[in-house]
Specification:
Blueprint: H1 7-19, H2 26-34, H3 48-55, E1 60-64, H4 71-85, E2 90-95, H5 98-103, H6 105-114, E3 121-125, E4 131-134, E5 148-154, E6 166-169, H7 177-185, E7 202-206, H8 214-220, E8 240-243, H9 257-261, H10 266-272, H11 292-295, E9 306-312, E10 319-325, E11 331-338, H12 344-358, E12 364-368, H13 382-388, E13 393-394, H14 400-412, E14 414-415, E15 418-419, E16 421-423, H15 428-437, H16 453-468, E17 472-475, H17 478-481, E18 490-493
Parallel strand pairs: 1-7, 1-8, 2-5, 2-6, 6-7, 9-12, 11-16, 12-13
Antiparallel strand pairs: 3-4, 4-5, 9-10, 10-11, 14-15, 17-18
Length: about 500
């Protein structure tokens, strides 16, 4: 006697005539659902990230990808497959705005459904929220399965009165963090016949966001300054991230799609072509002379000579840079540390720990710090604490305008064909600050003190001024000063 057919094999046998082709596996079926180009079976492709996304059992998972990465398609396919495999289940496909949903994501879903055999979509109601009734797979144990439903929701209209087994949110970056987790709590519907169903999946798709967006910390497991973010205390990011490899879905998009994107501005290419998290800031950068391609260097190596540590103090966001300076004056900013609501002694301990772990073979340490270190009331008398730790902090009055002008000058300077300031790519907050996180106010002159980026920028000012700012003389005229800074005066080295 023939063996008993599996659920998928029975469904496959029933649909072969309608498809007019052989579907040998769930992978074949998924490829057909994804194939918007209507190609022969042997030419259809599902990319590796899409496979991993479908197979991931995480209760919250997302697909981050560049334009054309197939993130919306795979999110829709995932929900339709679940509706077909779990009789009586309830799902949603959503976007923040219902009209945007109908114009974009719903059309993708309709394309996927049109590639399935007639009869899978039993009925649909176009009255908002649009609802589809899906025919599940027939099995010997369940020859007349209860239809599943998929509702298309504008999340801004959601009233909290619905219950679902799970859902997919397109353009997830449009949704507020608080609302997302509130919606997650509504994913609790258990279909009849599945009493042991415990995982309520919610999925999403989005183009890369800024690093200040709530998705960054939830997907990466750390905040933009490197502070660990683990609210579940399980050692994992709250959201399981599937990160598309740029261009891996090229076989599923029209010819020339990616090539056309190369005409976009660099900041848009970063998101829509390279699939990179981005830094986008509200004002003009204080240091317009900074360029990632010039000042960020991958090949900086510690040479074991004098270690410079540049400090900025304070309880909320104390910071320190670890620096080496070559004999010709080329400055390597090798590592950054930024504390968060950390007491002075603990801050000192962390800096010393980083020093011992990375730069123990130094031939000496020179510490430059906040010129007001002895006057701070909120740092627990930092100078006393530093002395107790055996740290000889060098500090002197650092004119704000002059030190900014000097940093600008060093950023513009080449020494023996090398940039005078070079930054290790691991210094992500420092790079973000130079790129515009440390930016000017609306007056176009005054740097904005945001309580975050400005601390790392301050300790760089102290270090640069202490090392290169001695013997400066004033350039008197405003026209000459304007070449270097928006301040009233600018300074340069004395001529000999």
């Amino acid at each position: 006697m023939p063996g008993r057919l599996s659920q998928f094999e029975r469904w496959q046998a029933e649909r072969r005539a309608e498809l007019n082709e052989t579907i040998d596996s769930m992978t074949d079926l998924t490829k057909k659902m994804l194939d918007s180009l209507n190609r022969p079976k042997e030419q259809r492709v599902i990319n590796p990230t899409q496979i991993k996304f479908l197979q991931d059992p995480a209760p919250v998972k997302v697909y981050k990808g560049e334009g054309g990465s197939g993130k919306t398609s795979i999110g829709v396919v995932d929900i339709i497959l679940k509706a077909m495999m779990i009789p009586g289940s309830k799902w949603f496909i959503g976007r923040r705005d219902y009209n945007d949903l109908l114009k974009t994501t719903a059309k993708t879903a309709e394309g996927v459904m049109n590639r399935l055999p007639a009869g899978i979509l039993l009925d649909k109601n176009k009255t908002p929220p649009m609802t589809w009734w899906i025919k599940p797979m027939v099995t010997p144990d369940n020859p007349m399965p209860e239809p599943s439903t998929i509702e298309f929701m504008g999340l801004s209209d959601w009233k909290g009165s619905y219950e679902y087994c799970g859902g997919f949110i397109d353009e997830l970056d449009e949704v507020e963090e608080e609302f997302f987790w509130q919606l997650k709590r509504a994913i609790r519907y258990i279909p009849s016949g599945f009493p042991d169903m415990e995982i309520y999946p919610i999925t999403g798709a989005f183009n890369p966001t800024t690093k200040s967006h709530w998705l960054f910390k939830n997907c990466m497991g750390f905040e933009m300054d490197g502070t660990p973010y683990n609210p579940n205390n399980d050692g994992k990011p709250p959201i399981s991230l599937h990160d598309s490899t740029p261009g891996e879905n090229k076989a599923n998009v029209r010819k020339g799609y990616y090539e056309e994107m190369t005409a976009m501005p660099p900041e848009l290419q970063q998101r829509y072509l390279k699939n990179e998290w981005v830094d986008v800031f509200p004002g003009a950068p204080v240091y317009k002379q900074f360029a990632r391609a010039v000042h960020v260097k991958n090949n900086i190596t510690w040479q074991g000579h004098t270690l410079y540590r540049w400090w900025d103090f304070g309880y909320n966001r104390p910071s320190c840079h670890f620096v080496q300076i070559k004999k010709n004056g080329v400055t390597h900013i090798m590592k950054e540390y930024m504390g968060k609501q950390i007491e002075g002694t603990a801050f000192i301990d962390v800096v010393n720990q980083i020093t011992n772990q990375n730069y123990a073979d130094n031939t000496g340490i020179i510490d430059y710090g906040d010129p007001a270190v002895n006057q701070h009331k909120d740092t627990g008398k930092m100078l006393t604490l530093l002395n107790k730790a055996g740290i000889n902090m060098l500090f002197r009055k650092v004119p704000f305008d002059i030190s900014i002008a000097l940093v600008r000058q060093r950023l513009s300077l080449l020494i023996e064909a090398e940039p005078a300031i070079q930054i290790d790519p691991d210094c992500v907050v420092t790079i973000g600050a130079f790129a515009g996180g440390y930016h000017l106010k609306d007056d176009g002159v005054t740097p904005h003190k945001d309580g975050f980026y400005d601390h790392l920028m301050d300790d760089i000012r102290y270090g640069i001024y202490n090392e290169f700012g001695t013997g400066l003389i004033q350039i008197a005229t405003q026209s000459e000063a304007a070449k270097y800074t928006n301040a009233r005066t600018v300074w340069q080295k004395k001529s000999h």
